Amino acid sequence: MKKLKAFISRKRIFLGFLILAPEFWWIIFKLPEVFRDLLKLPFYLNQKIFTVFTEERLVAVGLMRWANIDDSGWLQIFSKVIYNRLDLIIDEFFNFLSYISPRIYFQAGDGSIFTPPGIEPLPILLFPLFLFGLINSIKKNKTKPFLFLFIFTLVAYSTGIKNFSFLLPIALIFIWFSSQGFLALNKKHKSLFIGLLIVYSIFLGGRMIWLS
């Protein structure tokens, strides 16, 4: 019975944070555009495959690899290690990581029509709780949220499109981490935080409507 109550409590916190997030309401407002973008998923996937290893990029790597290098010596070996196709893979790895940059979710947005103008997609007040929940999940060896985070990020990365049509599932995982961080607070701090979050979210909602 206690486990059931704890489960319901965690769900309520997650849903509460979700409802207080401007991005939640903005995506609902933009649902037709979201569905149209999702229908383009096969095209985006195909486009991403052909843009990663384009002829132009590979030729550029080849030119860098052999530029001003003699036929012998350690410089030739160094050039083979540094300027090869592994460089492209490393570049794409950091591109992959950019899809889970907290700045997109708690500050800047994606710069498209899928994020509310002039405000952050998720309230910045959730960011400390997000970090706290992330650290706690690592300490407690909770693998499921990280597995889902990897899958959702891989899907978004595979499209080559960085907007909330495809980033929304990642935002939901971030909200879940924030809810886990909230659970670690004591009762007094929980009440204070909820009050601040509600007031701040009302401010964000008013600003979103005003700037729309």
UniProtKB/TrEMBL annotation:
Q: What superkingdom heads the lineage?
A: Bacteria
Question: Where is the chain membrane-spanning?
Answer: 12-29, 121-138, 145-161, 192-210
**What are the record keywords, sorted?**
Membrane, Transmembrane, Transmembrane helix
Mind telling me what this protein is named? Glycosyltransferase RgtA/B/C/D-like domain-containing protein
